[in-house]
Design goal:
79 residues; mainly alpha; elongated
């Protein structure tokens, strides 16, 4: 663990990029569970179609972003 901290603190720019990427990836991973919770709380309870369309559009954007960021990361590691 000590070696990890030494490497991170010796390259603060890379450590910051890793932290930001990690937070971004985790927020995208939460899109689907939050979608299910919001649909159950808002659409099923009130039945407003505009809410369902908005939530579905938002989660589709997040899933597409997660897919492309994962593919970009895999392509980046190979080279």
């Amino acid at each position: 663990m000590k070696e990890l901290y030494q490497r991170l603190f010796s390259h603060p720019v890379i450590a910051t990029e890793i932290l930001i990427a990690s937070v971004f990836a985790n927020l995208l991973a939460l899109a689907t569970p939050l979608f299910v919770i919001q649909v159950l709380n808002r659409y099923v309870a009130h039945g407003v179609n505009a809410t369902l369309v908005t939530l579905t559009t938002g989660v589709l954007i997040a899933v597409v972003m997660e897919f492309f960021s994962g593919n970009f990361a895999c392509a980046w590691r190979v080279e």
